[in-house]
Amino acid sequence: MNPPEDVLAALRELRAGDLPTHGGRTLAYVYDSGLSEVDSLGAAAHALASSANGLDPTAFPSLLRMENDLVAAASALLGAVPGVAGSVTSGGTESCLLAVLAARDANPSVASPSIVLPTTAHAAFHKAAHLFGLRRVDVPVDPVTFRADPAAMAAAIDDSTVLVVASAPSYAHGVLDPVPEIAAAALERGVRMHVDACIGGWVLPYFARLGADVPPFGFRVPGVTSISVDLHKYAYCPKGTSVLLHASAELRRTHYFASAAWPGYTMLNTTIQSTRSGGPLAAAWAVVNHLGEDGYLKLASAAREAVSRIRAGIEDLPGLRVLGDPVSTLIAFTGDDGFDVFTVADEMKARGWYVQPQFAFETSPANLHLTVTAANHGSEKQFLTDLAASVDAARAAGPVTVDPAVAEFVAALDPATLTSEQFAGLLAAAGLGGAAGLPDRMAPINALLATAPAPLRERLLLEFLGALYTPS
């Protein structure tokens, strides 16, 4: 046996190579309140309940109480109407999966069910359609605002539609879809309508209380039948907890699962998982109860001020522009033709900041994505100073070019017919070979990947992922 202190020392050494999760320097993947007591409280609560099993609420009634409390809190925030019912899940993707599953199973007579999505909807809905055998009807969004087009969404609804989706806000651009108009179209056709508020659901209501003009998107909007909101985002709870709310228990019923057709216990599941550690649930319950309305209002105020300052600073920098009109805590911005935005991301990383690159898609150009949290409040000036220096460095470096012959070769490849050996060669050519991880400079790799059609890029990156998850 290895001494506990040695194991923990080894773990700390491993973690030293990760992006920082606190301090506001990683503007993706993590949500930092900036309050140390929130982290310590969440960790202590997690430890108290980590061995409890959410599989059977009659065996662990504390977990049942905590889940009902969290569902009630989320419901109150999102326009509680009588009868709202919900479940705590492991994250936004599971919440979205269950919303799609509930809609499909509520319509067993539809032979080839479909879901209507704006093209900016989160890829979790692509995953749901893939897993549950639904057709996706992808509806183009407004090419300038990146908001869903209500008329186009309404026109896409037909007799096969079991669910219509809108975002509050969309991840890629942080814009809020016109939920009332889309929900009205769904209601007219008798179709369920889901609002993906995984990111905005816990912060936009507080923005509204602070005076922001936030269009309605909750259950008080006629036609909205389900909403997802992540607690491990702007409720600042440890990962992973999300809440899926339905307008009624009847609507929720079809995402439950039961099986008595085996000799063991009757399996009853409220989510996709069976065994569920009570740790994340208890941690979320503790943090939500600790912060309360006043705490969340203060955190939302800090995040809102940080977003406002960063957005204004980006718009003041020559050659940069914000995409769409973000209403929440997400900002996507791009640059002019004089430099490569992926090089800007590399330069920012060299200065201690992680910003997320996003490839071009339809009318959305290649851009950089920021997830701003309360922890960014107070460091906006330094961020913008480093961003300006990074843009200058990218201009000096010039555009990243891909050999035309290589780009032509990559564009002609068929991912369905390539062998593992050929993919290995491509990975090596792209700088993704081996299991050593990524190089420090990603701009040349991203430029090459940008030339690949989406199916090839997906396959190439999946092969890279497989290489990463291969023990050395």
Automatic annotation (TrEMBL):
Q: Which cofactor does it need?
A: pyridoxal 5'-phosphate
Q: Which GO terms describe its biological process?
A: antibiotic biosynthetic process; carboxylic acid metabolic process
**In its keyword annotation, does this UniProt entry include Lyase?**
yes
In-chain residues carrying the UniProt-annotated modification N6-(pyridoxal phosphate)lysine: 233
Q: Which UniProt keywords apply?
A: Antibiotic biosynthesis, Lyase, Pyridoxal phosphate
Recorded hits in InterPro entries, A to Z, give: GrpII_AminoAcid_Decarb (IPR050477), PyrdxlP-dep_de-COase (IPR002129), PyrdxlP-dep_Trfase (IPR015424), PyrdxlP-dep_Trfase_major (IPR015421), PyrdxlP-dep_Trfase_small (IPR015422)
Q: Name one GO molecular function term.
A: pyridoxal phosphate binding
Q: Which residues cross the membrane?
A: none
**Family, as annotated:** Belongs to the group II decarboxylase family. Sphingosine-1-phosphate lyase subfamily.
**Full protein name:** Pyridoxal-dependent decarboxylase
Organism per entry:
Amycolatopsis rifamycinica
